[in-house]
Description:
mainly alpha; about 10% strand
Amino acid sequence: VPQLLQLLLHSGISLDQLESQYGRLQHELQQIEYKIKSRVEEVRSNVEMEIRHLKTQLVKVNRILSALHFGQIKKIFLELEELPAYHALQKLESLLRIISRGEAVTLKDFVEKLRAFIRKESNTSLTEEQIADYRSYIRIRRTIVDAHDRTRDTGLSSGETLGVNLALCLA
């Protein structure tokens, strides 16, 4: 503290000016913190919105597919699977608390902490671009049920494969 006072006396900066600068910097830091939190929340919100929209679309597509039967194919439907990274994305509040602790975090450091958080929570490694892409958090699976009520992923004839793919494209 004595050295700081000596420096202040020799620099010509008044204590009022220093307090003013400190207040301004503190305000700027709070604004940056708010922007980071807002952006993370925006990314999560956009991902969740895209997934909700996709779920709605899948209901419509499955309704169309339910009316299709051909060859040994009795039923075709699509399922949306939420991947572990999606569940990690929903737990971001705990990561956002890191910023609120007053710990100095650069944007680059924060993105790395975000990637590490998702990796830790879901055992999934995502790039910066993938973090904001809803496709990183879900998988769409097609399910095919034959006339004997067996689920088939393989062993379809070429006609059945063509029919399934055509039905999916048209639906």
